[in-house]
Amino acid sequence: MKIAVLDINGKDTGRQAELSKDVFAIEPNNHAVYLDVKQFLANQRQGTHKAKERAEISGSTRKIKKQKGTGTARAGSIKSGVFRGGGRMFGPRPRNYGFKLNKNLKRLARRSALSIKANDKSILVLEDFSFEAPKTKNFLNVLKALEVENKKSLIVLGGTNNNVYLSSRNFKGSEVITASELSTYKIMNANKVILIESALEGIESNLSK
C-alpha cells in the first residue's frame, strides 16, 4: 500500500511511502478498538470520589425516640441515611477503574484503528522536519499547508523533537506524540493522522510483533 510523501508546505515530494498491509490494511476488529478505547478512558478516571457514611459523620449515638408507640418507623440513630444530615447510604468510595488487556489485543486494536483511518483516507505521510526554535507560528503554517488547522489532528514523530512539540502546545485540536506513545484512542479521536516518515518503521515494527 503506497501513499504520497508530502513536505511541510503540503506539496507532493514525488516520493511514496510503503505502508504495511499487516498494519494499515487489515480487516478492522471493532470490538478490540472498543475495549482499548474503554481501557484508555477508564485509566483517565481518578477514582478519588468519596462520601461520608453513617460511621464517619459526627452526631449523637443516643436512640432518638422510643421503640414503640410513636406510630412511625423505628429509629435508633440520628446518623442514619434516612435523616437530613445523616450519612450517605452506599455512597461512592475511592476505587481504581482500570482493567487489564493483553498485548496482542492492544496491538490488534491499534492496527484496526490505523486501517480504519487509512480506509477513510485520513492518513497523511509527511517528510521529516524540525524547527530552529519553538515557534507557534511555524507550526500553524504547517497545519495550514496540510489543511488541518480547523480539524483534530495527530502528528506522530519518529523520535523526540522538543522544538516541534513545544511549538504545538498552544493548539488544543492538534497533538504531537512519538511513535511509542501511539494509542487507539488518540488515533480514533483525530480527524487526520499525520505520520512523519521516520515514524513508519517504528510503528510497523511495534505492531507487527
From TrEMBL:
InterPro entries: Ribosomal_uL4, Ribosomal_uL4-like, Ribosomal_uL4_dom_sf
Gene Ontology MF, one: rRNA binding
Keyword tags: Ribonucleoprotein, Ribosomal protein, RNA-binding, rRNA-binding
One Pfam family in the UniProt entry: Ribosomal_L4
Record carries keyword RNA-binding: yes
One GO biological process term: translation
Superkingdom of origin organism: Bacteria
SUPFAM superfamilies xref list: Ribosomal protein L4
Gene Ontology CC entries for this record: ribonucleoprotein complex; ribosome
Region of interest (Disordered), residue spans: 46-77
The protein's assembly and partners: Part of the 50S ribosomal subunit.
Family: Belongs to the universal ribosomal protein uL4 family.
UniProt function note: Forms part of the polypeptide exit tunnel.
Protein name: Large ribosomal subunit protein uL4
Organism listed in the record: Winogradskyella pacifica
